[in-house]
Design a protein that fits this description.
Elements (H helix, E strand, L loop, with lengths): L2 H48 L7 H26 L6 E3 L1 H12 L7 E6 L7 E3 L1 H17 L5 E10 L5 H6 L5 E8 L28 H11 L3 E7 L3 E9 L22 E5 L3 H13 L3 E5 L2 H11 L3 E7 L7 H11 L5 E5 L5 H8 L4 E4 L4 H12 L4
Helix pairs in contact: 1-2, 1-7, 3-4, 4-6, 8-9, 9-10
């Protein structure tokens, strides 16, 4: 083996170890950020419930919520990148995903950047995960915004294309119709020698602000959706990302995402177990506002003491998974020893965590991902309460 080959292997080992270390660190940071965002979104929901509908603070609450949800998507992106999470796939209309993602981004888009949307209404559905597709759209849109330091135009189009009508599909050697998503800008462009590198993890051309995760995540999401992509760019002319998704064969799915969530109320007693005081506080206040009696515990030992004396009147336990001294999974086992029929709703930052899956496989009734709104939490609580045991 030559010295050059040895150096190459050492470089690859170092790069692999670096990615593993960064993945572990980013996962821990994202967990802590999710707790902070849970508190922010919870307080926004609580204020909406408490203030009169005609309050003048509505726009400020919307701005806070949009910012927190955007940050939540970013932390979820970090978690999925670090842990390779798999998410639920279902029939989805890309135009609705785009509209939702752009509405979250509005506050972050400079006034000298215009967005032109042409998403159509008769484009077939694709099979996908709404969170991942939202991340894809937001990442590409943010990338386009950053390519327009002096302003410009971002164009987003969605259409159905066929190999007969699309030279891109013929170039990709795709023989079936695809749903095409194009996000383009007339910005600074990407040098030709860098186009093939932009999807590498932690590669960035933005020395002071880039993370190198955004486009790497886009590439991973496209692979997970059995999609294809073509990137075209010219320096000082702009960049175009064309993404292609297989058409959903069953287009009878009815999307109900436009319906407003119903705020579910109740009078039962709920035990909230979370080591973050801000999370406990906002859940307690919000659920009390909805009529529930709420007990709180900052860790496993305190939760066991409360549950041992109060389990006959506790209808549900909302359980964080990552806690010091005693984990959520360990606590769940001890709660079951006291009451085998204990109802538990997991509240955690990621659903693919092995301990969360273990609890769900051993009798846990539900999972809600941090950060969440009070509206979402109330719906999941009622679903768990209504399960026949």
């Amino acid at each position: 083996m030559t010295s050059r080959n040895k150096d190459t292997e050492l470089d690859e080992d170092f790069r692999r170890q670096r990615l593993e270390t960064l993945g572990t660190l980013s996962g821990g940071i994202a967990h802590d950020l999710n707790n902070v965002l849970t508190s922010i979104l919870g307080h926004v929901s609580y204020l909406r419930l408490s203030l009169p509908p005609e309050t003048s603070h509505g726009e400020s609450l919307n701005a806070i919520e949009h910012g927190a949800r955007r940050a939540a998507l970013m932390t979820q992106q970090i978690l999925e990148f670090a842990r390779g999470e798999e998410r639920e796939f279902k029939p989805i209309r890309l135009n609705q995903i785009i509209q939702g993602a752009i509405s979250l981004l509005k506050a972050a888009i400079p006034k000298n950047v215009a967005i032109e949307l042409n998403t159509g209404t008769d484009v077939p559905q694709v099979i996908g995960n709404d969170s991942q597709l939202s991340q894809l759209v937001m990442n590409l849109a943010i990338n386009a915004v950053e390519a327009l330091p002096d302003g410009g135009t971002i164009r987003i189009t969605v259409s159905l294309v066929t190999p007969q009508s699309s030279a891109a599909l013929r170039e990709l050697k795709v023989s079936t119709p695809m749903v095409e998503l194009v996000i383009s800008d007339n910005g600074v462009g990407i040098p030709a020698d860098l186009v093939n590198k932009i999807f590498e993890p932690f590669f960035t051309t933005k020395a002071s602000s880039g993370t190198g995760i955004g486009l790497a995540t886009v590439a991973r999401i496209i692979r997970a959706h059995n999609g294809e992509m073509i990137v075209r760019s010219k320096v000082d002319r702009g960049t175009s990302f064309s993404v292609y998704f297989p058409v959903c064969s069953n287009d009878s799915f009815q999307d109900s995402s436009h319906t407003l969530p119903t705020i579910e109320v109740g009078t039962e007693t709920i035990l909230v177990v979370d080591d973050e005081e801000s999370v406990r506080t906002v859940i307690q206040r919000s659920l009390q506002h909805l009529g529930y009696e709420v007990l709180v515990a900052s860790g496993g030992r305190e939760a066991l003491e409360i549950f041992e004396f109060e389990h006959r009147r506790i209808s549900l336990v909302i359980l964080d998974m990552m806690m010091p001294v005693m984990s959520g999974e360990q606590l769940f086992g001890k709660l079951q020893q006291i009451d085998p029929k204990v109802r538990v709703l997991i509240a955690s930052g990621y659903s693919s965590d092995e301990s969360a899956q273990a609890v769900l496989g051993s009798g846990g009734l539900g999972f809600i991902q941090k950060p969440f709104s009070v509206e979402d939490l109330a719906l999941e609580i009622r679903r768990c309460m209504d399960v026949v045991m």
